[in-house]
Specification:
Length: 361
Amino acid sequence: MRAMSTSAPELSPEALAHVGLRPVLLSDDGRALRLLDQRELPARETWLTLTAVEEVAEAIERMAVRGAPAIGCAAAMGLAAAAHGFPEDPDAFRRACLAAIDRLAHTRPTAVNLFVALEQMRQALDGLAPGADVATARAALESTARRHARADIAACLAMGEHGAPLLPEGGTILTHCNTGALATAGWGTALGVIRRAHAMGRRIRVLVDETRPVLQGARLTAWELVHDGIPAEVIADNMAGALMARGLVQAAIVGADRIARNGDVANKIGTYTVAVLCRHHGVPFYVAAPWTTIDLELGSGAEIPIEERDESEIHVHGDRRMTPIGVGARNPAFDVTPAALITKIITERGVHEPSALAELA
Ligand code: MRU
C-alpha cells in the first residue's frame, strides 16, 4: 500500500491566494478539468476544458499537463469531473470509476504521484457507506481530488521554506526540466525553492538547462522565471560542465518523479549527468520533491519504471525533421541518479540525507 497522506498542513484561503499560477483546476461546479496547455507555452496561453476520461488520459500522455505532482492532480480532478457522465446506477458507476482509474494509470509510468492520487480516489470509493448513492460518491471523489491538490500546494510552500536557506547568497543555481507552478498544483518543488529564495531577498541567478527533447527548461521554466522577475539564462544541456569548470555554478536543484527507499531519484533525462558533473566539480546537488514522490515499495532506483517516449521527439523539431530518414533514435524520458550523488533531499518534512528517507517513513 502506498503512502496516502502528506504531513503538509491544510492551506488557508489567504495562502492559496498568494500561490499565483495554478495550471490544473477543477471547475467550481466540479464537472470539468481545466488545464493550461503546456505544449503551447511560451507562445500561447491556451486553457483546455476536459470532461471525459479519454480526454484527460490523452492530455497526460501528450504532455498538455506534465510534471509529477501535476499529473497526479490532473488524474484525480479529471476522474472527479468525468464521474458526472458515469451511469446513475451505483454498481455501474463504480465499474466506470474503476475502469477510468485503470485507463489513467496506463498513461505515464514513471511519476509515482499519479498512482498515489489514483489510489486516494479508489479509497474514496471504498470508504463510502454501504448503499451510498451516486451523488454521494461524486461528492467524495470531488473532495478527495481537491484535497489532493491543496496538499500538493501546501507541500510545495513548505519545501520552499526548508530549501531556500540552502541556496547561497549571490550564487548561480542550475536547474533542469520544469519543476515550477506548471509541474504541480501550484508554486513548484525545486523551482518553488528558487522562488522562495528570491522572494526572501536572496540575490540568486538561475541557469536553466533547455532540457532536450521536449524543452521543458527553455519553454516552461524560463517562462516562469521571466514572469517572476528572477534573473535567468537558458543553456543547452551540454554546456553545464564547461560552466561548472569555470566556477560559474554554486548549486544545482532539481525535482523528482519517483524516489526509491534508498534515496535513488528518477527525474527528467539528463539529471544524472548534472549530478555527476556536480560531484566532479564539488557543487552541491539538491533534489526537492513532495513526500508523495517517495515510493517506499521500491528498494532502489533500478526498480523504477522508466518511460520510453516516441522517437519522433528526437527526430523532429517544430515542423522540421533534424535527422536523416533511416536512422533510429532512443528516447528514455527519465534517468536515475544514485543517492550517493545527492547532497540533500528536500521535502515538506524538512531537509534529509538521501539514505535516511526510509527511517522517516
Ligand atoms: O516528462 P515531464 O515533463 O513530466 O518530466 C517532469 C520532470 O521530470 C520533473 O522534473 C519532475 O516531474 C518534478 S516536477 C515538480
